Every structure is written in structure tokens, then in C-alpha cells.
Amino acid sequence: MTDPFKPGIDELLFLPLGGSGEIGMNLNLYGHDGKWLMLDLGISFGDDSMPGVDVVMPNPQFIAERAQDLVGIVLTHAHEDHIGAVPYLWQKFRCPLYATPFTASVLRRKLAEVGLEKEARITIIPMSGSREIGPFTVELITLTHSIPEPNAVVIRTRHGAVLHTGDWKLDPAPLVGETTDVAALRRLGDGGVLAMICDSTNVFVSGTSGSEADVRRSLMDVVGRLKNRVAIGCFASNLARVETIARVAEAHGRHCALIGRSLWRMLESAQENGYLTDLPRFVTEHDVGYFPRENVLMICTGSQGEPRSALTRIARGEHPHVSLEAGDAAIFSSRVIPGNEISINRLHNDLIRRGVEVITDHDEDVHVSGHPARDELAEMYQMVRPRIALPVHGEARHIQEHVSFARQCQVPEALAPENGTLIRLAPGPAEIIARVPAGRLALDGKALVPADSEAIRHRHRLSFNGVIMASLVVDAGGRMLAPAQVSLEGLLESEDAAKAIARIGKAIADAIDELPKAKRSDDAELGEAARLAARRWYQKAFDKKPVTKIHVIRV
Questions:
Q1: How confident is the model at residue 47 (pLDDT cuts 50, 70, 90)?
Q2: CA separation (Å) from 45 to 25, 26, 61, 207?
């Protein structure tokens, strides 16, 4: 069968399957001359709408069905929302992986956790390097971000150059890694750029994002004023922040401890590639208790209030080795990711109840973003001067604002991509030519299921509405041989539940007695009559509509 979406030799296509209309879960495809190239394959995290789900990722069905035409996956940098789905989804493609040395080190550890380290081979592209991948020539341009080795990717075809920025900012003093290769960006712009696919996270933020050097100065001052044990929450991947905190600890005569396995794994990857090799030895969580409280500075995972993270367990008094007490301090050196406000506020309150002082970026300058604010976006457009702007890495409101901003920056064409919009970049004006299937997969235990699957929707209803379950034992004619066995889950306290169970049992018996004889001989009819009777009684009594399940046992 002919593939209607197979890219022609005379066209260049762009297709986001994740990260357009949301922050996280990046998956972007470029199509040309019968082949596809993927940039990034990331995850996001579950929320209250998906109970029991911690990890969410793009549904790659479109490209999985065309895996034979996928020439490779290029990873812009090592953040979870750009590489986190590779261990879960790579077997659907089994294609080459391309990354810089540090990103490859981080990814190898992830692949090893699922037993794919030998099968999923990673080809290293050095910083500022290039590679021929199928009909695409890929070149890397060094940028700055909150992790080592972030790269913009230049994709060259016969139709010209496309700049895919990945995540970036313009930081004159990133402290870890190189500064942005402004000269390369200017050369690219001078040579002509067909399109720029660009980060939209901070498009509403005026000015610049600030420098990591500014955070170091501020943390030096803040920690210097604190007298007891201090914990600093930050992202494990923000190695510039980790180095800053280690230097702050050293300056104030404190031992720096890493609390959380992901911090140790990230440190190992960094040191394999020559980063953070000249710092004092970090203390483990097992040894923290041996030092006086005023001589410890801890770096902790869990700044977003993740349920099983180090900071959350410390705040609840559940961590086996580490504690915070009245008079101690917790500094949150990270941004609030949209959707995490409730869990972060809960974490703050748990700490405050223990008498811990909580310090955030609203109180002190303890964090800068890794994404460009408006002045940086304007400077990037001035350097690159693309014909087409395609904002990604943002919610719908970010992307629409970025389209407007790009036009203010004199970009001739600007479109607002959504996941599943197939966009022709060349030839001719950029335009959306089709919409293809896009969606989300949820990691439910060890299984990958559609995020909108019946199982997850049903679990969500259960979490809000509770459940009534009843078992009926009837004879061949549908007469009840014993009272219905009814149980309530997530609905009432025990004393009220006992009364409700008795009345629900009676409502079920009455409904079955009133059922015509022919329907009583049909399990489905009998079960549905019992279900409606139980649910209607509960709705009338308590104005709620619980999920109701009936089991019919005929003897």
C-alpha cells in the first residue's frame, strides 16, 4: 500500500508528535526524500488526572508504523523531557541514536536499567560536529542551558538549512560548559535559514533569563546567613547548580551531600566527561548524620514535590538517613513546572510544620531559568533571520504568543504547530498539509497504555466517585438465594456505610422482585437492574454517582 505521508524528494516536512501544546514530552520529526529524522524523544510526568501513573510520553504510532524509513534519533541534550522516553520506546524503532558525549553517558545508564545498553548503540557526535544521516546533514551548534552540552541542530537538505534550537538561553557565564557559539549562529544566519523551530517556554517573560553566576553570588549570601542544616532542592540534571552549591558549601566550611540516586548518576556521567572533577568529595546520605548540623549543606532531589523523592520523604519524616528539624532551612533552587503547584505547596507546608525555614525564588535570587526570555529570543531572531518561525516547547498560549513575537521580529512566515500537524516547509510557503494521529502513552506499572485508555479513565472516575460492589447469588429462575453482599469503597465512614449497605441490599432485592420473569433469567438484564437500583438509591441519599459493579452468580 502506498504511504500517503511518505516525504518526497522535492519537499521538506516537519511533524511534532510531542512538545507542541505542552512543556515536555518532546518528539519532532523531519521528513525528506522518503526518510524521517527524529529530534528528541522525551517524557513528562503524570498528574491527578492519571492516578498511579508517574511517567507520560508521546504516542509514536505514526513513526513506529514507518520505522523502516526512520534514519535515526538525534538528541539535543540530556534532560528527561528530551531523552527520557528512549528506554521505553526505542524498541519500536530500533534505529541509530546520536548524541554528544555527556548526553550519551546519561542515556547509557538509562538504557542499562532496561537491559538495552548493548542493543541500542549510541553514535557520538562531538560538540560542534556534523554527521550525514540518510538524506540529512546534521550540524551541532553549542548553546547554553541548565545542563552540559545543549545543542541547536542545523538540518540541511537541498531545500536549505533548518535550525532546531532545542532548549537554550544566552548566558555569558554558564559556569559549567561552553558559552553559546554566537559566531556559528551568525554564520548560519548569513548563509540563509529556511526555518527556525524554537523554544517558547519563557516567551511571556520580559528581559533576559539571568546568569548562573548571579545565582552563585546570591546563594553564597543566603547560605552564609543560615546557621543550622541547609537543604537545597534542585533538578539533578542542573549540574551548574550542583557545582555552585558545592562551591558555596566549601566557602562556608560545610560538607556537601548528595541526597537522591539521580544526583549520583548525573554526577558520574558528568565526571566521565570532564565536568565537576575538581570539587571536594561529596558526602553520602548515610554519612550526613556524622557531621554537626551547621557543617552540612545537602543537595536534594524532589524540588517539584515528587511523592517518592528525597525532599518529600525528609519533609514527612520518612527518610531513613536524613532529617530536617526546627531551625533548619530548605532552599528551592528551581522553577515551578506548570501542573506541580499543588504538590510543591504540600511539600512547603510539610517542611514549615516541622519548623523548617522555606526559601524560594520569590524570597531570594536562588534560581534562573534555563530558557530564553524575550530579549534573548529577539537576539536569536536577529542573528539567524529565518524565513519561517515554528515555535515549539510550550503550551498553546506560549506558542501563539511566540508566533506574534516572531512576526514582530520581522520573520516573514510564522505558524503555530500542534502535536500531529504535518507542516510542509518547502517548497513554497509553509503550510499545514495534514493532521496525523498523535497522543500520549502512560507508563502504568510496567505496561505502556494509551493515556486516554478505558482503564485509566475508569481509575480516575473511581478516585473521584468511589465504588459500590455487590454480589448476587440467584437460582436458575433469577430468585435471590441470599441477601446481596454489598461493599462500599471510598464513600462512607464505617457506621454510615453499614446502614447504607443494608438499604442498598434492600433496593437491589426490590428491583429484582419487580423484574419480569424473562429478564430475571438473563444475567445481563438482572445485573443491570441491580446496578441501577443501587446507584439510584445512593444518588438520592447522598447526591453522588459512584461507579457501581454487580457480580451475578447463578446456581
A1: low
A2: 9, 13, 20, 30
Please answer whether residues 551 and 534 qualify as being in contact, where contact means their C-beta atoms are separated by less than 8 angstroms: no
Using CA atoms, how far residue 161 sits from 193, 322, 522, in Å, is 5, 52, 68
* Residue 404: half-sphere exposure toward Cβ, Cα within 13 Å: 7
pLDDT 10s digits, 188-207: 999 999 999 999 999 999 99
Helix (H) or strand (E) holding 29: strand 27-32
Q: How far apart are CA 313 and CA 233, in angstroms?
A: 13
Give the residue from 34, 26, 31, 33 showing the smallest Cα distance to 15.
31
CA gap 412, 429 in Å, rounded = 10
Total residues belonging to the chain: 555
Closest listed residue to residue 529, CA positions, set 543, 540, 519, 539: 519
Torsion of the alpha carbons at 315, 317, 320 and 323, rounded to the nearest 10: 60
> Hey, what CATH topology would domain 212-359 get?
Rossmann fold (3.40.50)
Q: In what order do the strands lie in the sheet with 296-300?
A: 255-259, 296-300, 230-233, 329-332, 357-359
Q: Does domain 12-207+369-447 have CATH number 3.60.15.10?
A: yes
Q: Give yes or no for a contact between 153 and 74, defined as CB atoms under 8 angstroms apart.
A: yes
Q: Does residue 473 register a pLDDT over 90?
A: yes
CA distance linking residue 126 with residue 256, whole number of Å: 32
Phi, psi of 552 (to 5 degrees): -100, 125
Task: Please report where in the chains the cell 565526571 appears, as a residue.
Answer: 271
CATH topology classification for 454-554: Ubiquitin-like (UB roll) (3.10.20)
Does the bond joining 427 to the residue before it have cis omega, within 30 degrees of 0?
yes
* Average confidence (pLDDT) over 386-415: 97
Rounded distance between C-alpha atoms, residue 311 and residue 302, angstroms: 5
Q: What's the pLDDT band for 431 if we cut at 50, 70, 90?
A: very high
Same fold, 212-359 and 454-554: no
Q: How many whole angstroms separate alpha carbon 390 and alpha carbon 383?
A: 16
Three-state DSSP class for residue 253: coil
pLDDT digits (tens, 9 = 90+) for 329-365: 999 999 887 778 889 999 999 999 999 999 999 999 9
Which residues are 331's β-sheet partners?
232, 359
Per the structure block, which three cell numbers stand in for 542?
447522598
C-alpha cell at 437: 494521529
Is residue 366 very low, low, confident or very high in pLDDT (cuts 50, 70, 90)?
very high
Domain segments of the chain as ranges: 12-207+369-447, 212-359, 454-554
Residue 15 has pLDDT above 80, yes or no: yes
CB distance 443 to 54 below 8 Å: yes
